[in-house]
Write a structure and sequence with these properties.
Elements (H helix, E strand, L loop, with lengths): L1 E3 L7 E4 L12 E8 L2 E6 L3 E5 L12 E4 L3 E10 L8 E2 L5 E2 L3 H14 L7 E9 L3 H7 L3 E5 L13 H9 L1 H7 L9
Parallel strand pairs: 6-10
Antiparallel strand pairs: 1-11, 2-3, 2-11, 3-4, 4-10, 5-6, 7-9, 7-10, 8-9
């Protein structure tokens, strides 16, 4: 897990302590696009109280839905490892975004029924988006830490404790922040 100064598709953004932003406080964002048109990603550690079956009847089980970001929170997105899914967009690290949803539902059901060793997909409501140059400005303001793969966490299985886990793994001053309350002024 190496830090870099340059955001790119497939990296992870870790919010710095004291970001002072309600949604992105203690966030871990997987960046799925970064180009001249802006940046797009999904927050990996903001758990909702919803499950996939709440949206798609064919889904069984208790697959948690995460809040991917503050943009389009009424839309369902999914990251997965199905490399042959038509229409899926490769977003780095053998991960894919979206694709033929009807076929995805079939593959997902088969995986569940057969206990196939495929990576568990991750579902999101909304996404995190930045207009051209916006993420770079936030980086100049020292808002984010950028991590390059390989990561010490799996983006598809990251949970609500991913921020604290990554902070501890980075060590030093970050390890100290890992156990601090989200609002240190309340301490």
């Amino acid at each position: 897990m190496e830090q870099t100064n340059t955001p790119k598709k497939g990296c992870i953004l870790v919010s710095k302590p004291l970001i002072n932003d309600g949604f992105f406080e203690q966030s871990v964002v997987y960046l799925t696009a970064h180009d001249a048109e802006g940046s797009l990603g999904f927050t990996l550690n903001k758990v909702s109280s919803l499950i996939a079956q709440d949206f798609i009847d064919e889904f069984s089980g208790r697959d948690t839905i995460f809040y991917g970001g503050p943009v389009e929170q009424d839309a369902l997105f999914y990251l997965h490892g199905y490399d042959k899914l038509p229409g899926a967009v490769e977003v780095g690290n053998s991960l894919y975004l979206g694709g033929d949803f009807e076929l995805f539902k079939v593959l997902y059901a088969e995986q569940k029924e057969l206990s196939m060793p495929l990576p568990q997909p991750k579902f999101f409501l909304g996404y995190s988006g930045w207009s051209p140059g916006q993420l770079e400005e936030e980086l100049k303001s020292d808002t984010w830490i950028i991590l390059e793969p390989p990561f010490n966490i799996d983006p598809l299985s990251a949970t609500s404790d991913a921020w604290r886990t990554l902070m501890k793994q980075m060590g030093g001053k970050y390890a100290l922040w890992a156990n601090a309350p989200s609002d240190p002024l309340l301490n």
